[in-house]
Amino acid sequence: MEFKNSIFIATSLDGYIADKNGGIDWLLSVPNPDHDDMGYNSFMENIDALVMGRVTYETVLGFQGEWPYPRPVFVLSNTLNSIPDHLNEKVFLIQGKPKEILETIHSKGFSRLYIDGGKTIQSFLKEGLINELIITTIPILLGGGFSLFGELNSLINFELKSSKVYLGNYVQNHFIRLKK
Ligand SMILES: NC(=O)c1ccc[n+]([C@@H]2O[C@H](COP(=O)([O-])OP(=O)(O)OC[C@H]3O[C@@H](n4cnc5c(N)ncnc54)[C@H](OP(=O)(O)O)[C@@H]3O)[C@@H](O)[C@H]2O)c1
What we know:
Blueprint: E1 4-12, E2 16-18, H1 40-45, E3 49-53, H2 54-61, E4 73-76, E5 91-94, H3 98-107, E6 112-116, H4 118-126, E7 132-138, E8 146-147, E9 158-166, E10 170-177
NADP nicotinamide-adenine-dinucleotide phosphate (NAP) is lined by residues 9-10, 17-18, 22, 24, 27, 53-56, 59, 76-80, 98, 116-120, 123, 146.
């Protein structure tokens, strides 16, 4: 089985994924009358499960409407004890170090994972566990907030697979990790 860990996320020009208050409404700053999904659905088709930090999970829980993910979501948390009844069979709490978390999820048969949430992504990157980055850059400077990237113990090289412009304003770069 081939294991793969991917990131699909949007950032501000200054590298934030949420503003100082945790807000993400700036992600929708450019009109999108035709509801272009900017590659999201085709990305999701090739994902078996999501691994999501607790803060991102709580943000999604606060959205109006139905639970948006068509795949199992493993939520990393050392503080949550339960999930709402309506998310039984959809959301699973998990704890531990990134490698242990991956072993648990792989043992359940999920191999291609979407890793989401700033702290979560940072902890997986630090352990060298991310293979693919799909990052859409929004033309705004937030001046502070929740960072996508943090410190690493050593550099990680990627190569550009593709670069696309959406809505005349958003640049989506798709990077693949280079083998050492
Ligand atoms: N721009 C975008 O496309 C985009 C995408 C996703 C998220 N966001 C936003 O970005 C913000 C992300 O918040 P965040 O950076 O604080 O991160 P996060 O990764 O969503 O959540 C961090 C939390 O995950 C839990 N956790 C448990 N084990 C962990 C581990 N091994 N590594 C990392 N975290 C672990 C901890 O929860 P406990 O405290 O419960 O232990 C920790 O506080 C949110 O506001 C979200 O809405 C934006």
